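The data layer described in this paper is built around a simple, fixed record for each protein. Because each token names a local backbone shape, the row as a whole describes the fold. We quote a single record here, exactly as it is kept in our systems:

***
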Amino acid sequence: MDTKPPARPSMPPPASSRPSANRNLREESHEVKVPPVPEDAMLKVLHAVIHFAVRILAVLMVLVILWGVADVGFVMYQRVVAAPFLMLTVSDILVIFGSFMAVLIAIEIFINITLYIKHDTLPIKMVIATALMAVARKVIMLDFKDLDPAYITAIAAVIVALGLTYWLISYKPPQPVKQDER
């Protein structure tokens, strides 16, 4: 009787050749890939509903951007025609800057939405950059005379945290220089 030895389970490949478990979470572009749609019919329908909702959000964001541009024009008009005529104070300029930055933040959010629609990815780096821009807008609009020091400290902590997060996401360790072997 010929007996075969029991088959050994195959060994996993060495850690260096295995794809990283975090590869989906942290690729070169720093985007989180949305998991593929499972074969379940109900989940396919729900996924389609979510995509439809995101498309509606994109259309609404375009309306918000257009409304924001009109608001910037209106704010500029109001500030220029107010007494003294054709003169802007520093506070007027800050109000106009705030309006501009609000529109730019809306554009960044629209870009995030369109990236999600096109690629089913969440652009984490861009979301952090948008948050930094929103905080920068808040800082520009602050009147430091009337603020509690704890509030200013909290905003500074948020800026440092977002800046550190953006830096960590963007950081690429230096590649060792390969010397020519002769």
Remarks:
- The CA atoms of residues 70 and 121 lie 31 Å apart.
- The helical segments are 41-81, 90-119, 124-141, 149-170.
- The two ends are 60 Å apart (CA to CA).
